């Protein structure tokens, strides 16, 4: 029995390590070749929500790029390279990639190792695998643009911040959507201690083809360590890299207070740096670097923006206001509540909280930003007008 368990463990490790290598764009590899190679890997190694929709599900998790329209003026080529969060996929960043391409920015969204196939692939992937993916992607993309910006959501935000701080001469600026500088938990420090002994706190099959339903403890531990290391780097090393940071004060996944403190201490002083803070309670700010947006919106049945909604368009056909998928993962242990959340025609949306639950016992997680277009306008202006020293 012990021999069997060891063999199974070794096979799992080898499979995860193999995908870590597959997910990284290789030196000198053309982007289109990289996409085709990953497509072939997904065909044989991906878990499906609906096997009949294989091509749809592969397309959702493949790295992709969007080019500006021909109507954009011929000038310096501005490029934005973006990375998704833990348990997500490139699908999470489709909306900002498309919106910013229409605003004359070349965008490319990459895949982090361990993502896009099945949650078990995250069991043996490390933060250094993610860092390697960022490094290789920057090397490739930077050859195709004149001015390089890095963007990231959640864990991807931590990764691109670290890269920018370690290579300040290569990066013109950074765009951060709900970046991870600390997990929003008082016991997140326990994850590295649990990781050698516990694989899962919960483990559900996903009915969302854009992301995993569960995250293994070892991956949470890697994200915890990454956030800790990036925060230390940013607070220790002074840089003059402009940053546009957008987050929700009600974020239940990352600690928004820590994020705001990192911005104030390490980013705010740089000319051009800006923060957009979505909040249900905070008054308008007189600080020119801080824009506060009220997100207590009873007419829209919205109370607060969620971690995942900051960069989502209301018009997204899957996650948007009239989209085909409603995010109800909070209720996975209660099928009746889950079904109510998915089906209710007059549901409320937001980030999980007692206040939201008081408005609806089966409220859904908000997956779009009602102020998305305003944020994209601000992001485009940021990249077209701000230059790092």
Describe the protein in words:
This protein is of the alpha/beta class. The chain has one domain (2-41, 77-295, 372-385): Rossmann fold, CATH 3.40.50. It has 12 helices and 12 strands. The protein has helices spanning 2-23, 31-45, 54-61, 94-102, 127-142, 155-166, 191-194, 217-236, 256-267, 335-343, 354-359, 372-385; strands spanning 64-66, 78-83, 106-110, 147-153, 173-177, 243-248, 274-279, 290-294, 296-297, 302-303, 349-350, 364-365. An 8-stranded mixed sheet has the order 1-3-2-4-5-6-7-8, sandwiched between helices. Helix 4 (94-102) links the parallel strand 2 and strand 3. Helix 6 (155-166) packs parallel to helix 8. The longest helix has 22 residues, at 2-23. The chain is globular. The N and C termini lie far apart (62 Å). This is Alpha/beta hydrolase. Residues 1-20 form the signal peptide. Keywords: Hydrolase, Signal. Pfam families: Hydrolase_4. Residues 80-264 form the Serine aminopeptidase S33 domain.
């Amino acid at each position: 029995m012990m021999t069997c368990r060891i063999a199974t463990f070794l096979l799992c490790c080898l499979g995860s390590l193999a995908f870590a290598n597959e997910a990284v764009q290789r030196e000198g590899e053309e982007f289109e070749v990289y996409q085709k190679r990953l497509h072939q890997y997904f065909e044989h190694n991906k878990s499906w929500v609906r096997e009949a929709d294989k091509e749809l599900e592969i397309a959702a998790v493949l790295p992709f790029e969007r080019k500006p329209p021909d109507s954009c003026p011929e000038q310096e080529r501005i490029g934005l390279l973006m990375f998704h969060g833990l348990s997500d996929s490139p699908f999470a960043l489709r909306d900002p990639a498309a919106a910013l391409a229409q605003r004359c920015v070349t965008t490319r969204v990459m895949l982090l190792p361990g993502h896009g196939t099945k949650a078990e692939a995250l069991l043996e992937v490390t933060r250094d695998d993610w860092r390697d993916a960022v490094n290789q992607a920057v090397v490739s993309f930077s050859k195709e643009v004149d001015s390089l910006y890095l963007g990231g959501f959640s864990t991807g935000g931590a990764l691109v911040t670290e890269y920018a701080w370690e290579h300040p001469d290569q990066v013109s600026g950074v765009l951060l959507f709900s970046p991870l500088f600390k997990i929003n938990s008082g016991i997140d420090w326990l994850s590295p201690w649990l990781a050698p002994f516990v694989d899962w706190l919960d483990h559900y099959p996903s009915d969302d083809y854009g992301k995993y339903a569960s995250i293994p403890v070892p991956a949470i531990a890697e994200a915890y360590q990454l956030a800790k290391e990036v925060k230390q780097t940013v607070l220790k090393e002074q840089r003059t890299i402009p940053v546009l940071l957008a987050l929700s004060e009600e974020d239940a996944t990352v600690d928004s207070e820590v994020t705001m403190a990192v911005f104030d201490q390490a980013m705010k002083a740089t000319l051009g740096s800006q923060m957009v803070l979505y909040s249900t309670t905070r008054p308008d700010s007189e600080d020119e670097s801080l824009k506060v947006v009220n997100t207590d919106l009873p007419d829209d049945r919205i109370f607060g923006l969620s971690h995942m909604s900051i960069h989502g368009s209301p018009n997204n056909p899957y996650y948007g206001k009239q989209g085909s998928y409603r995010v109800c993962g909070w209720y996975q242990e209660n099928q009746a509540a889950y079904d109510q959340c998915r089906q209710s025609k007059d549901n409320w949306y937001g980030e999980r909280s007692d206040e939201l639950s008081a408005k609806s016992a089966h409220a859904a997680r908000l997956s779009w930003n009602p102020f998305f277009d305003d944020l994209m306008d601000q992001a485009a202006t940021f990249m077209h007008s701000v230059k790092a020293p």
